[in-house]
Each structure stands twice: as C-alpha cells, then as structure tokens.
Amino acid sequence: MTPERIIAIALVAAVAVATLRLLLGTRRSPAAARPRTWRVVAILVLQAAAAGLLYLTLLPPSLPAASGTLVVATAGATRAQLDAAAGDRVVSLPEAGEVAGADAVPDLATALRRHPRTARLHIVGAGLEARDRDAVDGRAVAFSAAPPPRGIVAVSAPDAVAPGQRFVVHGRVAGVDDARIALLDPAGRRVAVGTPDAAGRFALDATARIAGTALYALQLGDGVDAIVERLPVPVWTLAQTPPRVLLLAAAPNPETKYLRRWADDAGLSTRLRIELGGGARVADPGTSLDRAALAALDLVVSDARAFASLGPAQRAALREAVQGGLGVLVHAPGGMPDALRPQLRAFGLDVAAETNARPLQFAADTRDVAVLRARLGGGSDDAPFDATLATEALPTLAYRPLRGDAAAFDGLRGPDDLALWQALGRGRIGVTAIEDSWQLATAGRGDVHAELWSGWFSTLARAGDAAAVDVRGERRVGQRLVLCGLGADDRVVAPDGGPAQLQVDPRAGEGDCAGFWPRLAGWHRVIADDGVERPFHVASPDVGIALHAAALRDATVALVRESGTAASGDMRAAQPRRGASWPWFAAWLAVVAGLWALERSTLGRGDGKGSVASRGGRSSHPG
To answer: pTM here?
Structure first.
C-alpha cells in the first residue's frame, strides 16, 4: 500500500468518525437544544474541506511535465550554431555579449526561473561558467562547442617547493603546429625547453632557488618562432629550516665526497661519519646512532657496508626513529650484500638487486646554451662557464636494477628500478644501486647530480611543518575558489593589502573549507593567528585564455555525460513533480480557523436550557 493511500484512508476515517459523532450528538440532544441544520451542514463541510486541504498540503498535486528546450548562448557562440540549435527559446549569458533574438539574462538560474518548464538545455559556445553549472539540476544537456582553444590548455605545477628542489611543470598544448615550449625563470631566462609529444603533452623542470614567491612563465611558440602565448606559473619556495642529514660511510670514497659537497652547497645541515678501520673513524659531533641524536636528524644516508655493520642496538634505535618520521636512504652501488637484505626487510623494505650491472645513460636535457647557463650559473674566474657542455653527452653510469614490492620515486630522472622506497610508520626508507654518480659532478654537470640526489632526499626526509594552502577551483579573478585546511582565525589578505572575506563552505568536503571570490590578480596570503603566511596566486582574467576555455569546455562536457542521453533526460523530465505545499497549507489554516470560530460561536445553536451549549457554551458534538 502506497503512502498516498494510507494518508487518504486515515483522513477519510477521521472525517467519518467526526461526522458520526456530530450527527449522533445532535440526534441525542433535546429537540429544543438541537443546532440549526445549516450549522450542522456547515461544520460537516468545513471538516471535509479541512481533511482534503491537509491531504493536498502533505501531497501537493503534480505539476505539468516539463518539456521545453532552452538554447543558452555562452562566450564564442556563433550565429550559425544558434540557428542550428533547435529550441523553444534562446537566452544569452553575459559572456556571450549581445545576441540578436536572444533574451539577455544575468545567469542560468534566472533563465530557468523565467522558463520553469524547461526540460532540456542546449549549450552553445565555450561552455558554462562555474556559477551556472549547479543550476542545470539534472536536466538533459546538449553541447555545441565553440572551436577548440589554441594554446596551452592544461598546466600542472607544485604549489610549494623547498630551496634547491627540482620541480616539474606538466601541461598540454592544442592547436599549434610545430609547437615549442619553454620555461622562463622570473628574470625571463630560459631554464628548460621542449617539444610537446603527439598528444600535445609536455614536461619541463627547473630548480627552485631562494625562499619566497616567484612567477615563472611558460612561453609557447610555433614553427616560425612566433610567440603564441605566455602563461604565468606561480612557484612558492618555502622558507624552512635546512634538512639535517647524516652521511654514513664504511670507508672514504668519492661518492660520499661529492655528496657532502653538494649538500653543503645546497645549504643542508650535514654531518659526516666515515669508518677508517681498526675502530678508527672520522666523525662530526652528534653522529652517534642513539635515540637523542636520531631525533635531531631528518635523513640518514648510508652506504650498504655501513648499514650492514650496524649493531642490534643501533638498528633498533634507527628503526624506532624511522617510525617516528626519520628518512633513511641506503646506497648499494655493488649490489645487495648477504647481510643487507635481512636488515632492510626488518625495516619493511623487501628488495633485491640484479647481479649484473646495466648501463645508465641520462638523456641530455638541453642543447640550449642559455638554458644550461641558467642552470649552472655564469661561472667565475677560477671556474668559467663552459658552453661546450651543452653539446656534450652526459657520462654513462651503471646501476643494478632493483625489484621488490616497493614504490618507485615519482617524477625523477632514471628508470623506475633505479631506486625504491617503502613507508614505515611516519617515516620512509629507500635504497638505490646507482654506481659512480659522482662522475656527473666531475664532468661539469653538477646540476644533474644535484637533481638526482635532491629528488631522493626530498622524498625520504622527515616532513616539515609548512604546507601550501589547498586551493580548489580555477585560480582566476572572478572565479569562485574553495580554500581548505584553514584554521578558525585564518584570514586572507589581497595583493593590495586589503582583507578578503571568506564564506564557510559546508559542502566543500572534509576539513575547514571556505569559499573565496578573488577580486584582484596577484599573490594572496592566508595568514594564521600565529602569523604564519601561506601564499597562493590568482591570475588575471586576460591571461590563460586557452586554459580557461579548455576548463569551460571540459566542465560542460562533464555535465553532458552526467545528464545522460537525451532519452533518459526526457524520461526524467516526464516524471511527475509535485508542486508547492504552502498555498494548500494557507487554505487549510483558513478553513480550520473558520471551523474553530464556528464551533465556538452561538450562531445556529439550540435554545433549550438542557442543551450542552447553555452549560458553558460548549458544542454538543465533537466536531
């Protein structure tokens, strides 16, 4: 039995009981005390009307099925597309400008309020802006897209990096023949160049310098070296305490020497302990592997022999430190000694190395002298810049491929089996079997040597406290953003120094999130109550035109997929939808008020002294 039938039966039964009580009470009353007939009829009618209106309040009548099609003109909509789109009415959103024969509306929600019987939408042009997508509300959507954008249509870059850390900018180019893409540093110097693949994808890398905010740029050129587009790429380099690193070696070797030299040049806080044999060693202060010393470190880098020679107490302390967040990198250039694998397994890292070494040739990342100069610097009188390095091949190294149930390092140079890592508690432990990486430094390519080791270091080292603000949405003036990971007293400061209002967004997912509408382009700052600042950049609406057009296109195509086929959309539109309840509730309230007033009035009551009405003015019936 349906809920509608249950409610109807209950109301009919209530009216029947009330009617029966009223009629029986009237009949049993003395003739002189009986109410007038019109009064009884009026009460019965009002009771029935009240029951009917209560039913309509709970279950309002269904509205006529929506069946209309609304053509919506967006940015870039052409007259030919609008003429080809079949629909009952045409409306134009503000981005479309003036469209002949179309009703101009401020947003899609307004258009749908004006045309409530719309069941289908036909979007024409670039696509719907973010403000209009929620208004679709399950209607069937068709999309006649504007011509595909030409330029950079996708970009992905890290929100925050550490000083000296390599970062990669991924993206995609569309509509440009013989495209060539370059990454420019804040001074306008090329730091990376490349050619997109057949699908238009590219990946360019650079190394972060000093702490602070900086605007890199992607410059897209065509086959005749004409600049098609230049797109800003914001990079925030966190000012943080330099990672504290301990280098362990079983004997002096060039690998440790050049690793120490790079770490010192990169500003890392480095300590060194080298065993000399016979119980002798060269060690900096604070290099003992006890709990207190390990708690003061972020990363331990050890060669295979030094790691295998650790005593049980030292291994236990090191394992406890890794579970607390410490990172460990084991360098095994000669393969895996028999004593090493069980010890790594005790740390949760079960890997093995092949017996035979394989050649490792890093591809020359650039043939551009300007890019190489930007990476290596201009040189000095003692060590001048050598432009011939741009045409020389990198040294061929060797490595023993690793295998095991562990993760490869993401986005780093070299094959996936060059180095593996595994999490243990809050920390991580990794291993690499590369051999003679120091030859990169002696060949004048210290940048490649630094890029290799800094990638491993940044993945394994203890995580710092600073983190970028989680910004969701298109970072563009006039577009709604969602900022997550905010504290209760966090505030946003605009580029002009003025405060920006945040609106708490309960629908944005887990975490403390707030909606934000940027009004200015530039660097905004999220400031916590303790004064810690986390910047994020908002682009001007006149840059990244292709990127914005691609975002609109993708979002509108997603709406088409969500709405299903036109047939399923018609089926949803044909399903009955109930109308509003409030008009029926207002009528029910008026009828009940009239019934209440009539039952308590003396109009139409009997005159007998024995009537119930004469004893306190109460009705003789239960109505």
So the answer is: 0.66
